[in-house]
Amino acid sequence: MRMMRAVVAALVAAAAGASWAGAPAWGRQMEFAKRLLRNHGYADLSQLVVDKVVADPEVKGAEKADLFRAVGEYHVEAIESIRGKNALQQCTAHLGEARTYFNKYAAEPSVTGAGRFEARKRLAWLSVNLARVYVRMLDEPDAPKADQAKQRAEAISVYRAAIKEFEALAAEKKIEEAKAKGLAKLKEDEAYLRARNDHVSVRIYLNDTRVELGRFLKTTGANVKEWQPLIQAATKDYKQMLYDFSGAAGLAQINVKFAEAIVELGPENDKEALERLDEVWEGRQGFLNHKAVPCKAMHIKAAILSRQKKYSEAVDALDEMIGKRTGGGWDPAQLKIDLVGARVTDILRNLDEGDSPQQYDTRALAESFVLMADGYAALGKAAEDAKKPGKEIERFYGMAYEIAVGVWDAKIPMDPKYARLIQLWRVKGRRPLSLTDLNIQIRDALANGDRLRDKDLEKSRAEYLKAARLYTEVVGRTKPEPEQLRKIWDSVGKCYYAAGDYYASYLVFAAMARWFLKPEPPQIVAYGYAQAAVSAIRTQCDLSVKAKASASQVNFEKDLLGEANLLAESLSPLGPEAHTIARARELRGEKDFGQALKLLAGVRPESRVYAHSLHERAVTYREMFLALPKDEQKGIAGQRLLKSCLDAFQACLDFGRKKLPELKGDEEAEERRRLLDALATSLAIYCDTLLKDFVNQPAKILELTSNLSAAYAGIDDSAYYGLILYSRMHAAYAVATGKDVARAAQALPVLEETWKQIKELPEFKYLANACKMGAMAYNELARRLEEEAKTAQAAAKADLEKRAGDARGRGLEFYLELLVLAPHQSLTTYRYVLYQLDKRVHEPKSADWRRIVEIAPKALGLFRKDEASVDELAQVRILLGSAYCGLRNWREGIAVLEQVDGTYEPDYRKRMADYDKRKAAYDQNPDPRKPAPRLPFRHPIQVQGREFLGRAYIETNARAKLRDAKLIYAEQVKSHPKRESPKYWEGMYFLCEATRMEGDLEEVTKYLYRVTMVIGENTVATGKGTVKDFLDLATKVNQDVQALTDAARKKSLLPTLDAVLKKLGKP
Amino acid sequence: MDRTTTRGTLARGASGLLLLLLLAAPAARAGTVTGTDAIHRKTGDPIRGIITAESIDGIEIGNQVTIPIIAAVQIDYYDAPDAYKRGHDRRAQGIYPEAVRYFETAPKLANVRKFWIEPACLYYAGLCLLEEGTDLAAGEAKFRELLQAHPKSRFVPDGLVGLGRVHFTARRWDPALAQFKKLAELAAQRNGWEEWLAIASLWIARTYLEADRPDEAMRSARKVLDLLPDPKHDLVIQAKTVQGMVLLRQGEPEKAVALLRDLIKAIAPRVAEEIDRGDPVARMQRTESQCYNALGQAYLKLYAKSKKDEDLRQALLAFLWTVVLYPRAQFVTEHMEALHFASQCFLKLNQKARAMELQSELMEKYPDNPYNRVPGAGKAGAPRKETEK
Predict the structure, then answer these.
(1) Distance of alpha carbon B281 from alpha carbon A812, whole angstroms
(2) What are the residues whose beta carbons fall under 8 Å from the beta carbon of B193, sequence distance 6 or more?
């Protein structure tokens, strides 16, 4: 988080002076988005709002540019709201988005001059921050080693891109400054000063970035030759700037930056750096309005001194700086050690101009305090090593502890390592445990618990347990307000749960549920805690049963569960009798059906839970019936139970239908909703029971579920509504595919009507199943009609076949509707639909092909990366390719079919190479005991794809592809050598055609001659490759030969061709 | 329609010099008069003089000139007693019990022109009691006293609206309708009272809406639109809001969504203006938050039909608008409603943590809110705090 804030601070600093005129049309929407993110952390919803604003077509022209900029700013601000896992990845994404929008802003024609310069500067600065995020990723404790090299390379590349952009900007601004200087009459000319300021700022950014990259390369172990030139370039340029801008107000800042850069080149430069930093500090009176410069100088000086192990001097330097910055507010010599922490917190909380980065703000000062704490700790260590008196050691560590705790108390984000260090310093400094200390430990424990949860459950649990104990200690040591106390105990309960101590968690939540009844009874909160208590003790109970714990322990925990349930149910909105239902449910779970029914019998019709009790009674009878052995289910006792079950369901529904109209108005709306929920649940399970084999009464379901909305107004809001509709669909399907043909026909309209209602619920879980039922019902109808057609008279036959075709078409329509409503269906479903569309007889067929062209790419998009379904995907591609070919869109078809070919070709080549190797070996050393290696076959899907591909090559008449077409057909002929196969003749025909199109008349004549030798065996009647096709082809070849100018060639070809034509039966 | 406030310092410009000359003699006769009142109109400089009588028909200045009451937007009385001014200050700060005390004290302590101070104080005391909402009976008594003791006062229409609003807040629909209809009849008889007629119709529409009589509500709202041709008029916007709610109740959420979206778009610039001005009344902001809540309800209805998560998300965003942008004390009713329904939307979207977070906020901020009595309770809700008009 610290990092995020740093990024935002840096970016906001870079945006100084940037502003846009907020347009009311979208300005408030952007404000809304920002507040959603900032106040609530709803990143997803906030992004939705932003996307909508960006897509608004009414925002045009200059306003559009402003909008782009505003969205860029939004993404920068969004970084601060990032929480939890993958924070850095999210940060990268936001920076990427910010860059995109600033790029768009800069590209807008209305943005010129200063606006464009600012945007480019901002873009480069965003790159720097992106690089910083990559750097931070390397520091992540859980970062995978494999990604580190990539992240390092990314960071370097982005840094370099930023440097390049800053260099370009600096060069431009240098020229602008020179021009403005030439034109300026006075030294104070506004245009000149602006150009000069821009130039200086860009060069500072440029050199800062060089130093930052150099430092990063140095710390990650890069070669000196890599990092040194960068820092040298920066120091050289800073030095040049010190000459160029000798009179400028920002010279001291450049001096500090120069010092900061040269120390990176080696300790030999420390002396010069310290001199320069002292010079800046001494001249601090001159820039009172920019306290950050001298303060930063002293901070760097202290860091250099610390590196030189001159800790005492470093602490003194910081003391002096902080004293001056706070106007004498910091003088540790005058403070008792016990008060140091409070003083630090007070300074940081009430720092004058503490939010101004120019004045060395709170954050910067906190960093100086942390550096000081480190210095004291180092002094303590040195004193320890030198075996100095214990009091001195304690004082140093004590100071380190107090200062660090003071910073923490001021709620300044600190590096997580300080949680551990603060403990160490407290122990060594013999400081008493404080509340802040406890909070630091809690935060550390929670962070560790969260981090370790997926890696080491035991360690993670130990951390959570530690956090729970620390929270308890906080309660013991403080007197929190009731609301705070609630939050603390809430955390304790959750920590125990996360630690796996479910019993302790139960105790906490149960106590909270009771405690919350007084003084204020927000019942929902108490009920929530009671439910949490039930959940905790139930988990414990399950674990004990699973671990086969002693019976006494299990019974004890079950008793507790019972108590927790009683507590929860007493708080339940269903009223005090709710526990009867819950208890009955539990007894049912324990198979103590008699006791459950006895309990339920006591619920009176006036009770709020009467409907629930009837439902529970029905479910209990159902369980009792199901618990019987199969043969007993059919016996008298079984059938009696079944009847009781169905009667109880019916009674529940009857009661509800009567009761519902009595519940009117807003006052009873809640009561009505609860009753409806109970009825919907009951109806759904009743229908499910009626569909089971042991009842099998689908017609009854149709009766129960007709006019649902009239009988149970508002039931469509219930969670079970979809399931009830689904049961109705299922029942209609069962009737439609049943033996009774007359009733089957009546069920189809019900099926249609229910499907129409189900379609209104596109996110319904069983939508695909419902669709299949519709399709299968119509397919069954088609099958019946086709059966009938087989024995029908000719006139009736045509009609029956047409009706069967229509029924199949309707079946397919169900699937097509499904794919539109809910495109996330299985690949098998997609393939089935496409296959059906391809194969069915339909007029015009082009409509089906167009639908294939529409649907198939969606399927390919959804399952593109599904490696397990390579064959299915290839089949979808073939269907798509053939549809393109059907629509005579050969080029698209070729692209798709080549993908199919490309999928299988490498494997075929590999097998071919293997074959060649084995064949050569076999030929060299033939072994009569082993069979000779066989030529490998292509995958059947590839063969199928290649057939379409060959045809498409020929149809496009692309000369470059004719050779491929010939290879494909030569292979086809080779694979189907038998003359009775139409594939042989088709292959021969297209082989001849491709050869003719290539212009190789000799070759085609040879092929035709070969064909005529066996033409008597040609029995092909449909498709390509009939005798007539060959005759037409030979006639075309003959015409081509006749047109030849080369007499000798003509003379050599004509006799053979004449013979061919004669053989093919030319009149 | 508040037309009476006081100003600490009266401008003493040269404008209205002629009128002053005309009024000089009666003023001198009055003896005790030391300043001038100012009658502010919609346009032009304020008219200055000594108001000597007020009635439904007009304001008399010096017993010679009568200015129609409808021409006055605001009146500054030079001798307004201190308690009266303090009463207004407290009312503006929302400290209603103190304001009521001052308004009750002002007529007793001050020996000023009773014809305006008494009805004015009764009206504002009633209004404060109504806004406070804890003692509606006392508010009702104030308005009744105003109407009975000062039947000719120019505060009569205000009093009728006030009394109607008391009944409206107490969910007594028939008496509320009776008062608003009385005002409508009064306004219909007078020339230039179209705005009062529109106000009456608007309240009638709101009452019908709450009384679950959507057709009549729609008719009354349409009447407001017919009366006022300016589409940007406050009353027109509020009437359209009522229409949106009616469409919602009539089970036409698609149309309600379209209407409310247009409305929100139309009022957005006015809301922005109001925010820029820092207007404490925040009438347009309240209207906007109500429109967004209504839009949320419309999308919830759509969701109930379509079961599409997208509709639910749109409903959620509409409620969140008020949650995020209107968390101030002025918008308590709207904020409570938005918090509750946004939390419900999150629950339906299976985002329990977020739902609980909003539920906690609702409980912490408004422990007495009507939504927390039972989980999921809702439609009975709090009575709507309508924008004062």
Answers:
(1) 62
(2) B70, B186, B187
pLDDT cut 70: percent of chain B above it: 83
Quick check: B298 and B275 in contact, CB under 8 A?
no
Provide the 8-state DSSP code for B386: P
For A548, the token pair is 């086969």
Classify A764 in phi/psi space as left (phi over 0), alpha (psi -120 to 50) or beta.
Answer: beta
Q: Do residues A262 and A235 make contact, with C-beta atoms less than 8 angstroms apart?
A: yes
Euclidean distance between CA atoms A672 and B239, whole angstroms? 32
> Using CA atoms, how far apart are residues B83 and A751, in angstroms rounded to an integer?
76
Instruction: Look at the block and give the residue holding tokens 């499907």.
Output: A755
Residue partners of B44: CB distance under 8 A and separation at least 6: none
> B99-118: per-residue pLDDT in tens?
999 999 888 877 778 888 99
Least confident of A494-503, A697-706, A759-768, A822-831: A759-768
Find how far residue A536's CA is from the centre of its chain: 31
What letter does residue B35 receive in the DSSP assignment? S
The phi, psi pair for A367, rounded to 5°, reads -65, -40
Tell me whether B271 touches chain A (CB under 8 Å).
Answer: yes
**Is residue B174 less than 8 Å (CB to CB) from chain A?**
no
Q: Which residues pair with B48 in a beta bridge?
A: B38
Cβ atoms of B382 and B336 within 8 Å: the answer is yes
C-alpha–C-alpha distance, residues B344 and B309, integer Å: 13
Place of tokens 């705090």: B385
The whole-angstrom separation of Cα A772 and Cα A783 is: 16
Q: Are B331 and B382 contacting, i.e. CB atoms less than 8 angstroms apart?
A: no
Q: Report chain B residues whose CB lies below 8 A from the CB of A667.
A: 380
The whole-angstrom separation of Cα A354 and Cα A706 is 71
Tell me the shortest Cα–Cα distance from B167 to chain A, in angstroms.
19
Residue of B nearest to A760 (CA): B306
A733, A774 contact by CB (below 8 A):
yes
Q: pTM for the whole thing?
A: 0.53
* pLDDT tens string A447-498: 888 877 777 888 889 989 998 998 888 888 777 777 778 888 888 999 999 8
For chain A, give the number of residues: 1067
As a whole number, mean pLDDT of residues A575-579 equals 72
A254 within 8 A of A241, measured Cβ to Cβ: yes
Q: How far is CA A672 from CA A462, A710, A948, B296, B303, in A?
A: 47, 15, 63, 22, 20
Q: Report, in angstroms and rounded to the nearest whole number, the Rg of chain B calculated over CA atoms.
A: 23
> Is the predicted pLDDT of residue B23 greater than 60, yes or no?
no
For the segment B345-363, what is each residue's pLDDT rounded down to a tens digit? 998 888 888 888 888 788 7
Distance CA B3, CA B56 (A): 13
Q: CA-to-CA distance for A392 and A428, rounded, in angstroms?
A: 11
The answer for residues whose C-beta is within 8 angstroms of residue B59's C-beta and 6 or more apart is: B39, B51, B53, B66, B67, B69, B72, B75, B154
Q: At what angle do helices A61-78 and A43-54 cross, to 10 degrees?
A: 170
- Interface contact A717-B304, CB threshold 8 A: yes
Which residue, A291, A284, A321, A286, is CA-closest to A303?
A321
Q: Nearest CB to A24: which of B272, B356, B373?
A: B272
Structure tokens at A329: 């507010």
Q: Which residues on adjacent β-strands are paired with residue B8? A: none
Chain A interface includes B304 (CB < 8 A): yes
Query: Residue A70 and residue A104: Cα distance in Å, rounded?
Result: 11
Q: Name which of A40, A522, A761 is nearest B372 (Cβ-Cβ).
A: A522
Considering only CB atoms, A32 lies closest to which of B305, B313, B325, namely: B325
B356 touches A: beta carbon within 8 Å: yes
Question: What is the helix (H) or strand (E) element at residue B48, kind and residue range?
Answer: strand B47-49
Query: What is the distance in angstroms between the CA of the first residue and the CA of the last residue of chain B?
Result: 6
CA distance A841 to B236: 61
The size of chain B, in residues, is: 389
